[in-house]
Specification:
mainly alpha; 0% strand; 93 residues; 55% helix; 3 helices
Length: 93
């Protein structure tokens, strides 16, 4: 294989690898934001630490996202008015 082609493939592969890591880190930062944490506080650890940063975001507690809760304390994705479960919704044991 020609040395010039090998160098070209290494450069292109490195650029693609870095772009993939930046994309994945951005997605994990979005997940941290969905969990109620600051997005940029978790983008850089994910980018610089890789797998360890991703595991850190996965282990974050869910603070609840106030942007998803309406004025009447109902979640946009929920049809119920509260977090309590009515007795008719409980499964039979």
């Amino acid at each position: 294989m020609d040395d010039g082609l090998l160098v070209f493939l290494i450069i292109v592969g490195s650029i693609l690898f870095i772009a993939l890591i930046v994309y994945i880190s951005g997605k994990f930062a979005d997940i941290a934001e969905m969990k109620g944490h600051d997005r940029m506080d978790y983008f850089w650890p994910c980018l610089l630490l890789g797998f360890i940063g991703w595991m850190m975001v996965i282990a974050l507690p869910d603070r609840g996202n106030p942007t998803e809760i309406g004025n009447d304390n109902t979640c946009k994705n929920s049809k119920r008015k509260s977090n309590t479960i009515a007795s008719e919704e409980l499964p039979d044991l």
